[in-house]
Amino acid sequence: SYVLTQPPSVSVAPGQTARITCGTNITRGNSVHWYQQRPGQAPVLVVYDDSDRPSGIPERFSGSNSGNTATLTISRVEAGDEADYYCQVWDTTDLYVFGTGTKVTVL
Amino acid sequence: QVQLVQSGAEVKKPGASVKVSCKASGYTFSTYPMHWVRQALGQRLEWMGWINGGNGKTKYSEKFQGRVIITRDTSASTAYMDLSSLRSEDTAVYYCARSKWGVDAFDIWGQGTMITVSS
What we know:
The complex is a heterodimer of chains A (107) and B (119).
Chain A: E1 9-12, E2 18-22, E3 32-37, E4 44-47, E5 61-65, E6 70-74, E7 83-91, E8 95-98, E9 102-106
Parallel strand pairs in A: 1-9
Antiparallel strand pairs in A: 2-6, 3-4, 3-7, 5-6, 7-8, 7-9
Chain B: E1 3-6, E2 10-12, E3 18-25, E4 33-39, E5 46-52, E6 58-60, E7 68-73, E8 78-83, E9 92-100, E10 103-109, E11 113-117
């Protein structure tokens, strides 16, 4: 089964770039999805299938999957990006698995 | 617009059962899978199970097998999650979430339902 480890927190100044990593044994064949969850709100899908963006998600959000690690990149960070971010994969044994979550703080 | 609206918060005693509803609108309910995901306070998201909106087939996480039942009423465009033998550790926000066939991501989420288990 997958271990989707994320850094507990990432701090970034406005206008800079935040990078959030996910996973210790993700294989290139598994698609990784990313969610943003603001306090008290439901999650929102921001990246799916490693690097695709749903309609309405800014281009500032991008994803990549190099094999062992997937990365969500938030460019030109804004105050409104402050939230928890979760990665997620589908696995044949555990089915839908979420990462440990990363709190992004905008300084 | 596409949205999922869930039933309201509930307080239950240990050992009881709870049933949460999720009404879909803005799309054809029977053509998409519906999932249930929960989140305890300060914890990660946890997938519980899903139902095929068309044929009603279900699949559950091993963790909840035997305690959770997911059903749907296509005429009402509503999915239900029934969790039994509640314990304090089940205190959490429960979400319904839609996925698309061929994409293992959850593109639309309900607003969440807080379930508190307390004696």
